[in-house]
Design brief:
Layout: H1 2-13, H2 18-33, H3 37-54, H4 60-76, H5 92-98, H6 104-112, H7 127-131, H8 134-139, H9 148-158, H10 170-177
The structure holds zinc ion.
Amino acid sequence: MRMQALVIRERILGPAHPDTSYYIRYRGAVYADSGKFERCIELWNYALDMQQSMLEPLNTMTQSSLFSFIELFSFMVAGADPTCKDNDGNTALHLTAISYPWRTDLATILLCGGAHLDTVNNDGHTYESLLDDKIRFMTLNPIKYTTLMCLAARAIRKNNNYIDINRVPVHLRDFVLQH
Ligand SMILES: [Zn+2]
C-alpha cells in the first residue's frame, strides 16, 4: 500500500520533483529505524539513481542523499574498532605498506578489523599510494573493502572546491576528512 503511494507519487509528480525522492528516502528511513536496512538501502539506491539521472552532478539533493548513506552506514558499523593514527596521520595499514617485507596477511587482518584502504595520512597518502605497486594492491581484493560510504566521502573530498566541508553534518565531518 505504502509502496504503491510512492509509485503513484512518482508518476504524478515526475522523478525530478523534490517530493518524489523525499518520500522515497523518508520511507527508507522508516525501514532503517525498524532494522530493515536492506529495504532502506534498496529504496535509497533507487532515489539516488533517479537523482543522478535527472539532476546535474552533485546537486544539493544528491549530496543530501550521499550524506544520508554515510550516516546510515556509520550507524550500522558503530562499535567497530576505530583506526588509530600516529603523529603523521598514518594508520597501522599505512605502515604495512611501507614496511619490509610486505605482509599481505597483516594488511588483510587490519582490513577485516575495519581499517580503510582509502584513509589519507597528513600528506594525503593512502595505503595504495604508499604501496606504489598495483599488482600487490590488487592481490588484496580492494573492491571487497570499498564501501558506498567511502565512495561518498571520497566524492565529497574530490570536489572540495565545490563542496564546503562546513556543509557536511558535524557528526560526519571526521569520517569525510579521513578520506
Ligand atoms: Zn574509507
